[in-house]
Every structure is written in structure tokens, then in C-alpha cells.
Amino acid sequence: MEYIDSKYRKLNLTRRFFDGSKGYFAAAVAASLAATVLNALTPQIFRFSVDSVLGGGKYTYLAGHLWILSLLLIAVAVLSGIAQYICRSNTAMAGENFAKNMRDALFVHVQKLPMDWHDQNQTGDIIQRCTSDVEVIRNFVVNQLLEVFRTVFLVVTSFVMMLYMNVKLSLVVLAFVPMVVLYSAVFYRLIAKRFVDADEAEGELSTVVQENATGVRVVRAFGREKFEMDRFREKNEIFAKLWIRLGTLSGLYWGIGDLITGFQVVAVIVLGTIEAVHGTISVGEFIAFASYNTTLVWPIRGLGRILSDMSKAGVSFERVDYIIRAEEEAYTGQGRKEGTGRTGTFDIRFEHVNFAYESGKEVLSDVDFSIPQGYTFGILGGTGSGKSTIVQLLTRLYELEDGQGRISIGGRDIREIPLEQLRSCIGMVLQEPFLYSRTIRENIAACAPGASMEEIRRAAETACVDESVMSFPDGYDTLVGERGVTLSGGQRQRVAIARMLLQKAPILVFDDSLSAVDSQTDSMIRKALSDDMEQATVILISHRITTLMGADQILVLNQGRVEEMGTHYELIRKQGIYRRIYDIQMSQDDREQMGGAEDGGI
Fold first, then answer.
1. Alpha carbon of 136 to those of 70, 148, 176, 190, 523: distances in Å?
2. In the chain, what's the furthest Cα-to-Cα distance?
3. Which of left, alpha, beta for 556 (phi over 0: left; psi -120 to 50: alpha)?
4. What angle do CA 24, 29, 34 make, to 5 degrees?
């Protein structure tokens, strides 16, 4: 039952992406069949020509009209060439449309998959599924299915011609066909699992290359070139051995196949010669028959290649279907009514929230707090305390399960707010901001494509990055390189802050996003931001006391639990975790210098 369901899924998957390609594919099939019929006429023309010249047959009257047969042969060749051109051009259009539809659908679907799905799947493997596997499917669905139509039609046409000329020889040829087809089917069914292993090995190899290319600076900085080269060689060797084994098995298949078809050709030649000597068939018929037999050998052998491609395509279908079947993010809670428009107010409420990732370890336990609209709310905690998880739950990058608490904005459960509307209300800057391999201007305007240059520069000035950008030769048209590698860590963070400010969201989240700038720049940015975001609800996540001390309320997390909460001065007086961190980070001189700063900032 599972096997049948899998077959139906593959058929439905093919049908889904074939829109826009059906006409091209039909034209390609028609042209291919026409070319097959024309090519089937060629041996008959030779037959008539030979028998008319040698005499002794019923076609001797054509001896004086060989020029007609020559013109007919030329006409067949020309028409066959035209049919082949129509077939190939339409095949190309059908194939590329099919692949384009599949790649578009996969890319859009991947954008909507939840974060826990991305956590469980390697980037290199996802890339391979969306590129290499799509190409394998395209090749099979368009090229190989067309070849199946052509081969079946060719076999039928050729056998009709052969039966017309000599039944006995035709039956000899027919006896070998099931042997070749059965042998091919059994062989490629046995090695299908090896194609799965090879595809998985290729995905792992792609992941190694992708990770190494992305982290090349880290690799160089820590002198890990040898480790990475050894890691690549290991994966590459596994991949190579799998394909060497497949190549060896394929060689065995073709060798045995050659032996079978060799016996077929020998049988036809021996029996055909005997028939010709006894006058049962003419020399022209024997030549035509041998030509049809030769024509049949490679298409029938090609069925093995088609079965091979079918095995690979079946694996690729499963790998692509794995992505297609993955459930997208829930835009609204199941059974809840979808809302419209933004919520009217932007106060935030976490009510007894509990959360654990796929690993099962609880990250947040009974977290309960409120952030009034317009407040600046600080979150402090050690590594793994759940600081970033709070933000990821607020933006629904991860979903809060039913019965594990409630998160609301403006009194409205965030699971009732469509994702696009929810996330448009929240601007966020991460500790490791992602920048596109484009210009600085395009990166800042990524969330507001219609922003003017004046608006872009104003956001950059607030983020204290305008001066740095203008010092570059190309200014805002400077290309930042892949993931912003041409900028320093602090510059990347400030560009990301400018991008967030241009979004003009009513809720702003800074997830340790000033960690790569010095204290003086940190203070300047916080001062500029406080002047620019008077009405925004701000969440500050940081390990720096200086970044948080100006917040209206500070939450201290310890191993996923709320340990303390209050203003900077209240927490200092409590002599708890916050005070201990404060004492560690701040010397007496620092405290005196920061005396004024404690009353300001965001």
C-alpha cells in the first residue's frame, strides 16, 4: 500500500509541475514519432534499390528509376531532420519549464518552513535537493519519458516491417527482447539503494564545501586548513567509492547486455543468410531486416539506461517530496479565526511560558512578565539561559505548543495574528547579523525597498554607521561581499540596526546586537536610538550591564527561569545575580564614569 501511495505521489508531483509544458511535450512526442516513421522507411528504400538492381525479384521495374529512390531517400532525411529539430527544441522548452516550476515551488516552500525543520536539515543537502535532484527529475520526466514513447513506437513499427518481410526471423528477434528487458529491470532494481547512498553522500559533500566556503576566514584564522582538507577528503572518498562501485556494476550490466544482443545479431545473420541462400527472402529484404534489427538493439538496450535513470529519478523524487511534504509555518493557530490588520497596541505579555526544543531539554520554565507599550525592556542571562528563545517565540520562529503558556501583543494571542502581520510589527537585529552579498544601500533598504537615499542615510546616522560608510570609496554603493565579510563585526551590526530602523516597526528587538562595538560607540548608538524611538517598545538582550542599565525594566534569566526583575537600581540593591555581574563588569572608576549614563540610554 505504501508502494502504491509512493507511486501516486510521484505522479501527482509530476502533474503538478507540468503546467505550461504539456503543449511542448506533446509537440516533442509527435515530432519524435514522425521522425521514427521516416527513419523506418530508409531500410525499405534500400531494400527496393538492392532488389531492383540484383534482379530476380518483383522490383526489377525500378532499376531504371533509381533516381526516384535517391530523391525519396533525400526527402526522408530532410523531413527526419526537421522532425528531430522540432522534437529537440520542444523537449528543451518542456524540460526547462518543468524544472523552473519545480525550483520556484521548492524555493517558496523552503522560505515558509519552520525553524526546527531548518535546524534538522543541512544547508548543503537542501541545496542539492533543490538543484541536482530537480535536474535528475527533469531529465527523466522529459527526456527519458519521451525516449520511452519513441522506443515503444520504434519497436512496434520495426516489428510490423520485419513480420511483413519474414515471420521466422521476426520471432527470433522477439525472443531476445524479453530477456534484455527483464535482465535490465532486475539489475537496476537491485542497485536502486546504491543510488540513494550516492545522493546522500553528495549532499554531505556539498555541505562540507558550503560550510568551508562560508567560514573560510575562521578556517584560516584558526589554522584549520588541514582538518578541513581531511574532512573533505573523507567525504569525497566515500562519494567516489560509491560511484566507482556503481560504475563497475554498470560495466557488468553493459557487458552482459552486449553478450545477449551479440547472440541476437549472430542468430539473425546466420538464419537470415540461410533464408537468403534458400531464396525464402531476397538480398534486399535480408539487408533491410538486418538494418531493422540493428536499429532495435540500441533502443532496447537503452531501456536499461532508462530504468537506471528511473531508479535515480525515483530517489530524487523522494528527496524532493521530503521537502514538499514538510509542513509550513502555521500562519494562524488551528481552529482560530484569522485576524486582519495590525493589533492596535503593542504591549507584550508572556504568561507562564514553558518551551523545549526538539532535543527535549526545557529551555524556558514558567516565564512570566509584561512589557508596557513604549517601554525599554532589558534581558540579562548567561549562555543557554533562554534569552534568544524569548525573541524567537515572540516572532514565532518557533511555535509555542498548546498548554505551555500564552504570548500576546496588545492582549491578542500571537498565534491568532497572521505571521506576515506579526513579523511586520517586530524589527530585530541579531548578534550575528546576516547581510546580503549586495551594496550597503541595498542591505539597509532590504526591508523598505522604496526608501529614499535620504531615509537610508538618516537610519545609518542613527545607527552611527553613516560616517564609516562615507569613508569607503564607493560609499553606500560599496559591495559588502558574502555575508558582509568586507565589513567589521561592529559595522555589520550597525548596518543591520539601520536596516531595522528603516522598517519602522513598533516593536524593536536588539539581541546582543551591540556586542561587537566598543563601549563608547555603544553609548553613542544607545543615545541616538533613544532619541529616535520614543514610541517604540524595545527589547534589549545583552551581556553588558552598561547596555541594559537605562532600561525601564530588566529581566534576569537563570537556566530558563525568571530569577530577578526590576530597574537597574532595584536589582543592584537586591544583591542577587544582577549585582554580582555588575560588580564583575564594573570597576569603581567605571561606575563613576557611568554615573550619568545610568540615567540615559535606551
1. 42, 16, 30, 19, 55
2. 121
3. beta
4. 125
Q: Does a structural domain hold residue 256? A: yes
Nearest to 257 by CA among 298, 295, 289: 298
Pairing of strands 507-511, 537-541: parallel
Report the alpha-carbon distance of residue 140 to residue 102 in Å, rounded.
Answer: 14
* Amino acid letter for position 264: Q
DSSP state of 439: B
DSSP labels, 482-512: GGGTTS-HHHHHHHHHHHHHHHT-SEEEEES
Q: Rounded to whole angstroms, what are the CA distances from 589 to 37, 407, 526, 594? A: 95, 41, 21, 9
The DSSP call for residue 436 is -
The label of the residue with cell 547472440 reads 263
Q: 370 pairs with which residues across the strands?
A: 349
As to burial, measured by CB atoms within 10 angstroms (0-12 exposed, 13-18 middle, 19+ buried), residue 141 is buried
Is residue 526 included in any domain, yes or no? no
- Enumerate the β-bridge partners of residue 426: 507
Among 573, 514, 576, 574, smallest CA distance to 548 is for 514
Q: Which residue type is seen at 323?
A: I
For residue 222, give the C-alpha cell: 584558526
Q: Are 58 and 69 in contact (CB under 8 A)?
A: no
Q: What is the distance between the alpha carbons of residues 163 and 161, in angstroms, rounded to a whole number?
A: 6
Give the domain CATH number at 81.
1.20.1560.10
Q: How many C-beta neighbours within 10 Å does residue 159 have?
A: 16
**Does the residue 511 lie in any domain?**
no
Buried b (16+ CB within 10 A) or exposed e, 519-554: eebbbebbbbbeeebeebbbbbbbbbbbbbbbbebb
Assess if residue 92 is contained within a domain.
yes
Per 3-state DSSP, the chain is made up of helix, strand and coil in percentages (nearest 5) of 65, 10, 25
What residues are paired with 351 via a beta bridge? 406
Q: Which residue has the cell 526545557?
A: 362
Q: Average pLDDT for consecutive 10-residue bins of the chain (602 residues)? A: 55 77 88 88 77 59 63 86 91 89 89 83 83 86 84 83 82 79 74 76 79 69 76 87 84 79 81 79 80 76 69 82 84 44 73 84 89 90 85 88 89 87 86 81 85 88 86 86 73 86 86 69 70 78 83 90 91 88 70 48 48
Q: DSSP string covering 134-198, please?
A: HHHHHIIIIIIHHHHHHHHHHHHHHHHHHHHH-HHHHHHHHHHHHHHHHHHHHHHHHTHHHHHHH
Pairwise CA distance, residues 24 & 221, whole Å: 53
Closest to 21 measured CA to CA, from 105, 103, 91, 107: 91
Domain count, the chain: 1
CA–chain centroid gap for 59, Å, is: 63
Cα torsion 543, 548, 549, 552 to 10°: value is -150
